[in-house]
Amino acid sequence: MKIAIAQINPIIGDLPGNAAKILCAAQKAATAGARLLLTPELSLCGYPPRDLLLNPSFVEAMHISLQQLVKDLPPNLAVLVGTVEENLQAQNNGEKPLFNSMALLDNGIKQVFHKRLLPTYDVFDECRYFEAGLQANYFTLDDIDIGVTICEDLWNDEEFWGKRSYTKNPIADLAILGVDFIVNLSASPYSVHKQQFRETMLRHSAVRFQQPLIYANQVGGNDDLIFDGRSFALNRQGELICRARGFETDLVIVEFDEVQRDLLPSTVVAEYESEDEEIWHALVLGVRDYAQKCRFSQVVLGLSGGIDSSLVAAIATAALGKENVFGVLMPSPYSSEHSITDALALGESLGIKTTTLPIGQLMQGYDNTLADLFAGTQFGLAEENIQSRIRGNLLMAIANKFGYLLLSTGNKSEMAVGYCTLYGDMNGGLAVIADVPKTRVYSICHWLNQEGGEGDKGRGGEKISSSSHKQIIPENVLTKAPSAELKPGQVDQDSLPPYEILDDILQRLIHNHQSAAQIVDAGHDTQIVDRVIQMVARAEFKRRQAPPGLKITDRAFGTGWRMPIASNWFAVKNTYQSKTIPIHN
């Protein structure tokens, strides 16, 4: 039996468009001789639909689209389609009104399977909408028993995690039933290291239960989430026999041998050579899909001559084409000459259109207006931030006038500690590198220069340079000290620890949930650690007002970050830390 994996890129809520993508994949699969087609979780409506699921007309329209798809599909091809089904018992027993389901279409709706494990961590909130399924899911097709799991259903192997589980393991339940192989239909968001983890986890399950496993994942950007695809399959021995492309749509075929009762080797797309290369392709996809799915064709951003705006401009150029990226230089009297020349050099390197709007006169206008009110005070943050807000207003005016999407250029290190200006450099419709630490920004830029903008090598992505030896990011951008240039001689390290130190502290605090004492024990200065922790806490109100930021780590300042603004925990936290009382963070 040939099984096709449709790694599609749905648009949330576009039921006709998503159905058309499933149908197109089905026609190709049928031509290739497939008997079964797999599509991702909630493939008909796109994942995550969030509160669209609270709208009864949306649910009804999904049912109508599913019925039409049944009529349109090629004969002799069974298709698993991600959809929702109403829970008819909900009103009687207080359950949630919907199930997260997979419908088996084979000349009609033959069976419907419900997701059993509903995630409620990080960006997931499925218990808000769905009731969990109770039954092990499988069906028989041409005398082959096929187990069905949906995304989270495969993430609960207690032996793999090394701890007791209080919920079922759907993979184990299907193995007990003796199915021939198991499919998993997923919408699993991207983060660094995620693919290696998925393959390791499923390899453990395949070997433990002697079960061939096929994993089908969604691809594409939806709001702050990026789905990397990279669907794959493992045989009974846990050997990787198939892997689809990363960060682009794909259709791959695997074959189940009924004599060997196992999956046969197929095409395995190579993994990325570095984390920087992988992150680059993730961000390019995130920008492209956010712009296109929000119906923008062109973007605008401020070019400061710094490394952050340089990287964002390069990403935008790869995502949308140089003709669709507009860079704006806005020098002030404090801007250095190299900031202007570096920004212009970057624009020339990328081939994008640029313009220069000096803000000196606008600054003077603010100074004149505020002169009486600010009389007798020292020049400080208020005056510095006016420069950033002038720039933010100019960029928003351009975006409004021409219908451009404004890209903000702040990195994760700055967002974490609040080294950014509300209604200034934080203005924008998308924060491209808001989940990329400053040290990683440098690393990606060095990789980009080495690759010369090609970076692809058959795994998806766009070339932004005509020569593999061309340096995209000007050398001076990579070597000069980072600076906001809001006062004479200013550099970031006037206000922040060196980024190598800051990023390590932030990694331990935000990702590893370490206490101040644990971070100090790792070798960091006590005063610096305490100061960084306080800065992170105080900046929460800024992050709450920031534009959506593309998520590339397991702990991003987005939909999965749910910290209170009015909180005093960080101030009193050390009270509970001692040598004798274990603190679990």
UniProtKB/TrEMBL annotation:
Superkingdom, taxonomy of origin: Bacteria
Positions with a binding annotation for ATP: G302, L303, S304, G305, G306, I307, D308, S309, T409
Residue ranges occupied by any CN hydrolase domain in the UniProt entry: 1-258
Transmembrane segments: none
SUPFAM superfamilies in the cross-refs: Adenine nucleotide alpha hydrolases-like, Carbon-nitrogen hydrolase
EC numbers on record: 6.3.5.1
Sites where the protein binds L-glutamine: Y121, S188, K194
Pfam families: CN_hydrolase (PF00795), NAD_synthase (PF02540)
Keywords: ATP-binding, Ligase, NAD, Nucleotide-binding
HAMAP family per the UniProt record, alphabetical: NadE_glutamine_dep
Protein name, per record: Glutamine-dependent NAD(+) synthetase
